[in-house]
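User: Is it possible to get a 3D structure for a protein together with its bound compound? The compound here is heme C. I've pasted both below.
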Amino acid sequence: MANRLGWLGLMFVCVACGAKDQGSDVRAADPKVEAILAIAADEAYGEYLSSECSTCHNPASVDTGFPTIDGQDPAYLIQALLEYRDEVRENETMRSIAGALNDEEIAALAAYFSNQ
Ligand code: HEC
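Assistant: Yes, that's possible. Here is the predicted structure of the complex:
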């Protein structure tokens, strides 16, 4: 998995150059977001899963050109990942990554990153 993501990272570096927030406003009342917020998230599992994210998403203090997801609102993180998984958001890298995540993994990742 790490190798595949590394390869994706190289492939999509230029896509990432101009990448910034492009999602819609957080719809806290979105039933799909609410359903994942309601999952008893396993933050330790989120930390484990986050190793595949940190190649690109680094702490807020490090400007890598990738959007910072540390300390983001959990509903925002969940909605963003669902929008990639549902192919609402365009980015192919994140579509591929989010497409491989189930609801429990999204809940765990949102719990972990929102607490960083
Ligand atoms: C290969 C690099 C890469 C990896 C690995 C990666 N991301 Fe991303 N991520 C991006 C890029 C580039 C964007 C911006 C895409 C866009 O413009 O929509 C992004 C956007 C996001 C966003 C939306 C941020 C915002 O401000 O709207 C979230 C949430 C996110 N990623 C979560 C994750 C999670 C969780 C993982 C690990 C499971 C992960 N990413 C792994 C490159 C990556």
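Confidence is low (pLDDT under 50) at residues 5-22. The radius of gyration is 13 Å.
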